[in-house]
Design brief:
This protein is of the alpha/beta class. The chain has helices spanning about 25-35, 35-50, 90-105, 130-140, 155-160, 200-215; strands at about 5-10, 15-20, 65, 80-85, 115-120, 145-150, 170-175, 180-185. A six-stranded mixed β-sheet has the order 3-6-5-4-7-8, covered by helices on one side. It has a two-stranded antiparallel ribbon with strand order 1-2.
Length: about 220
């Protein structure tokens, strides 16, 4: 068996690799996986949370503090679409996104959809009073269930388990079977016609469309 020279681009730079022809199939895949561009794509997917699509959402570990609802378990919401947003009372992005989430809750009010806001106190370990979080949520017009994610237990288990993710204002849409079908990595989404808010509006519309899609008969 001889050797074959592979020519391609790696990060925009032309490179050559010499490989034994008998090992070509395995070598090709190994080279692709080792390329910096491939690694950058994987890092980007992890940062955006797209690697979580299709995985089962873990049970949240929150409370005992809840508002606007009795304590809920994710397992008890099987058969429904569930949207979860991590938020805090000092976050300007949350101040814009929570009213948008409330708008979605009202839009799907008579559908099998549950919206949940999981509060994390910032900085980590500060354990701000729950009453402050409830007060802030009420000022923002929130009527859907909210709960205290002490020590960021659920946030870390669901999102910050990957060290490449630094934003804490992530949102998840969970299908009736418990599978994650949409991840919004943050920081903000809301409906708007303003050109400068195009990304926030597009993200809001993507969330709305995904919830609607999950409600269609299968």
């Amino acid at each position: 068996a001889g050797r074959v020279t592979l020519i391609g681009k790696d990060g925009g730079v032309k490179r050559q690799w010499s490989v034994e022809s008998a090992k070509l199939p395995a070598a090709v895949f190994a080279l692709i996986d080792s390329m910096p561009m491939r690694q950058q794509e994987m890092r980007r997917n992890n940062k955006l949370g797209t690697d979580l699509i299709g995985t089962k959402a873990r049970e949240w570990t929150v409370g005992p503090e809840w508002a606007n609802s009795k304590p809920l378990r994710l397992a008890d919401l099987r058969g429904q679409v569930v949207m979860v947003r991590f938020w805090t009372d000092t976050c300007p992005y949350c101040a814009a996104s929570l009213p948008a989430m409330q708008k979605l809750a009202e839009l799907f009010e008579h559908q099998p959809v549950t919206f949940v806001g999981l509060y994390q106190s910032k900085p980590l370990g500060s354990e701000r009073p729950w009453a402050k979080a409830v007060e802030r949520a009420r000022k923002l017009g929130v009527t859907f269930p909210i709960a205290y994610d002490h020590d960021w237990k659920t946030l870390r288990a669901w999102w910050l388990v990957d060290e490449r993710r630094v934003a804490t204002s992530a949102s998840f849409i969970i299908a009736p079977d418990g599978t994650i079908v949409h991840v919004h990595p943050g920081p903000v989404f809301f409906p708007s016609d303003a050109p400068e808010d195009a990304r926030a509006n597009a993200d809001y519309e993507a969330i709305r469309a995904e919830i609607a899609a999950q409600l269609r008969p299968r």
